[in-house]
């Protein structure tokens, strides 16, 4: 096993066991979106609040699923908080490219997101990793 693979596995397990920004934002002005992966049963809900300048001021998630889906949701909340809608959409596209692309990502520039680069070797897990990111994408469109 590549030592980097071991490090990335540790990042994913850490976020899965101790997710950041976990739990609903129950009061308005939070907006909500959800997603389900029918192939494995993973479920996710995403809540966000927007600042007066239309930036994502807070993002939270809740749900059940595999370590990859929960860790990806945790990383997504940290990676997209503070972004404009346009910048958040760019991060979603960047994450999708990491999971499905053929070029090697710049692992040092990506931080914890780089932990998911290995998921591309397991196509059935790409939907798990993208679940929260797709829910955020739907939320941004509303």
State the CATH topology: Sufe protein. Chain: A
Number of domains: 1
Q: What structural category characterises the helix and strand content?
A: alpha+beta
Number of strands: 3
- Gross CATH architecture: Alpha-Beta Complex
Q: What's the overall average pLDDT, rounded?
A: 89
What's the order of the H and E elements?
A: HEEEHHHH
- Major β-sheet profile: 3 strands, antiparallel
Return Rg in Å: 14 Å
Q: Count the DSSP helices.
A: 5
Residue stretches low in confidence (pLDDT < 50, at least 5 long) are none
Helix content: 40-55%
Quaternary status: single chain
* CATH domain class: Alpha Beta
- Report the β-strand fraction as a percent range: 15-25%
The main sheet orders its strands as 1-2-3
The separation of the N and C termini measures 43 Å
The backbone outline, from C-alpha atoms, is: globular
Compact description:
This protein has helices at residues 3-17, 67-80, 85-100, 107-110, 123-141, and strands spanning 31-37, 42-50, 56-64. By secondary structure, it is an alpha+beta fold. α2 runs parallel beside α5.
List keywords for this structure.
142 residues; alpha+beta; Sufe protein. Chain: A; three-stranded antiparallel β-sheet; 48% helix
